[in-house]
């Protein structure tokens, strides 16, 4: 007696099984983002995500072993989108003098286009216990484009060593997190133009910090 073929691996309506699974995974991540971005990580449940994605629990476990894995996937997806936006702004900067403001403006557009992104990146990534470890790792990945920008001579970083750049990038990330939290939440009521200018000046000031002259 021969084994029956695996029906789940067959193409359906011309779409391969692995592509269908990838689509379902994206539906679940999008649903998790919608819930986390509006109600926080604590509001995200497996059943709630399945309802939002219009998929059964079977398909949830097809892509994720548990709820925590989905939360991490949501954070990673938003962080990658933000990183892409930052890199694009860096590549498009007309000159070094305009670099910081162009990057800050691009990132501000990214988070204001969908305020849920800011909540996932700057609130839930540090507040949700399930995201603490991965969130800390992503800070390092997220700050790489910032460290690249800080190498610009216009920022006064030409004498900085790698440790200076790493520390300053971490400082910039922390400053951005609190500034964007306050502005997006409406605790600081200023125009976007003024906010972009202020954040840009903060980045420029932080970029000048250097302890390279101190011997280890």
UniProtKB/TrEMBL annotation:
<dbReference type="InterPro" id="IPR009057">
    <property type="entry name" value="Homeodomain-like_sf"/>
</dbReference>
<feature type="domain" description="HTH tetR-type">
    <location>
        <begin position="22"/>
        <end position="82"/>
    </location>
</feature>
<dbReference type="InterPro" id="IPR036271">
    <property type="entry name" value="Tet_transcr_reg_TetR-rel_C_sf"/>
</dbReference>
<feature type="DNA-binding region" description="H-T-H motif">
    <location>
        <begin position="45"/>
        <end position="64"/>
    </location>
</feature>
<keyword id="KW-0238">DNA-binding</keyword>
<dbReference type="InterPro" id="IPR001647">
    <property type="entry name" value="HTH_TetR"/>
</dbReference>
<dbReference type="Pfam" id="PF00440">
    <property type="entry name" value="TetR_N"/>
</dbReference>
<protein>
    <submittedName>
        <fullName>AcrR family transcriptional regulator</fullName>
    </submittedName>
</protein>
<dbReference type="InterPro" id="IPR050109">
    <property type="entry name" value="HTH-type_TetR-like_transc_reg"/>
</dbReference>
């Amino acid at each position: 007696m021969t084994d029956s073929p695996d029906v789940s691996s067959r193409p359906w309506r011309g779409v391969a099984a692995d592509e269908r699974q990838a689509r379902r995974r994206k539906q679940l991540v999008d649903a998790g983002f919608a819930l986390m971005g509006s109600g926080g990580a604590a509001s995200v449940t497996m059943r709630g995500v399945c309802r939002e994605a219009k998929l059964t629990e079977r398909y949830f476990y097809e892509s994720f072993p548990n709820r925590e894995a989905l939360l991490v996937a949501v954070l990673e997806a938003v962080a990658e989108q933000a990183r892409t936006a930052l890199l694009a702004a860096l590549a498009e900067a007309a000159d070094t003098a305009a670099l910081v403001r162009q990057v800050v403006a691009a990132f501000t557009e990214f988070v204001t286009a969908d305020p849920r992104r800011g909540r996932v990146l700057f609130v839930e990534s540090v507040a949700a216990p399930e995201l603490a470890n991965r969130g800390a790792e992503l800070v390092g990945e997220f700050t790489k484009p910032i460290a690249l920008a800080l190498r610009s001579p216009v920022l006064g970083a030409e004498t900085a060593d790698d440790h200076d750049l790493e520390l300053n990038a971490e400082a910039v990330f922390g400053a951005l997190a609190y500034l964007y939290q306050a502005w997006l939440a409406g605790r600081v009521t200023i125009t976007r133009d003024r906010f972009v200018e202020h954040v840009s000046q903060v980045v420029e000031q932080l970029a000048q910090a250097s302890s390279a002259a101190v011997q280890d």
